[in-house]
Amino acid sequence: LSCRAGAARRDVMRKTLGMRLLLGYNALFAWRRRREGADGWISGSWDDENTAVAYGRWRHDETPKFLRRFPPIDFAGKTVVDFGCSHGGSCVYYAEQGAAKVIGVDIGERQLQLARHYLKTADPDQRLPIDIRLGTHTRAPIDDASVDLLLCADVFEHVLDPVQVLSEWQRVLKPGGRALLSFGPPWLHPHGVHLWELFPAPWTHLLFAERTVVATRHFLKQDDLDPNVCTHYRDLGFNQMTIGRFLRLLRNSRLRVEKLELCPVKNLKPLVWLPLLREFFVTEVHCVLQRERA
């Protein structure tokens, strides 16, 4: 018993030392910390109706930026899926562009409750053809071959079973239907852990142990995640998607790649052609996939 207690104390000391080193390293880069509203949306709480409305409106207004990454899209008369719809802002935008039906899918039941609240404010007369549905990590509640266009913005690096997700996209798309996805930064990017507001220093998640990063995240960010349960990156919703892994997924998928764009930092395009360097310096991935016609 005393040996176990001693080992536990040493483990706590190592974790505490690691956290102190991590915090000290990030203090050197505090001037780079992203502030709320500066480059994107950062909020301490999502479980709030006022925040849900504000975030839904922000997402609605940001959707055109997402669409500009791809060739022009005609939404008129199409069945559209917003995969990972969150609070529903993009669903409203797609419906406003003339989609015949917009299906918003997410795996968070509370998020979808907040999405429905946002939709009541954005479309109080319920004129927009929007249907919000709860999915799972492995299944989208959508009929086979029923979707013209599937859009996925800043979600693919969070899905826990990307192989199954691509298989589901193949299933629900009509022959000739397309999936448009954009995500970033990838895992080996300086901020691949997506916690800019907490860790402004580059490559914190590569320089420090996973348990140290996750424990420090819980220490700095007070929310409803249980530190005793959420101890790994997967528990925080990160699948550690690298460029190499993404390309392998595409090669093994039955979907045809129509477009693939790797966007490097500072527009340093020569880095894209160097497999090792691009892992560390590509900031966004844009991709168009198509289910081939029979």
Q: What report would you give on this structure?
A:
This protein has 294 residues and is α/β, with parallel strands linked by helices. The protein is built from nine helices and seven strands. Strands 3-2-1-4-5-7-6 form a seven-stranded mixed sheet. The model has no long low-confidence stretch (mean pLDDT 89).
Task: Please name the defining characteristics of this protein.
294 residues, alpha/beta, 7 strands, globular
Protein topology:
Blueprint: H1 2-27, H2 49-67, E1 79-83, H3 89-96, E2 101-106, H4 109-122, E3 130-134, E4 147-153, H5 162-172, E5 173-183, H6 204-207, H7 210-220, H8 243-252, E6 256-264, H9 275-281, E7 282-290
Parallel strand pairs: 1-2, 1-4, 2-3, 4-5
Antiparallel strand pairs: 5-7, 6-7
Helix pairs in contact: 1-7, 2-3, 2-4
Summarize the structure.
With 294 residues, this protein is of the alpha/beta class. The chain has helices at residues 2-27, 49-67, 89-96, 109-122, 162-172, 204-207, 210-220, 243-252, 275-281; strands at 79-83, 101-106, 130-134, 147-153, 173-183, 256-264, 282-290. Helix 4 links the parallel strand 2 (101-106) and strand 3.
Q: Measured on Cα atoms, how large is the radius of gyration?
A: 20 Å
Overall 3D shape: globular
Strands, count: 7
Largest sheet: 7 strands, mixed
Question: What is the mean predicted local confidence, pLDDT?
Answer: 89
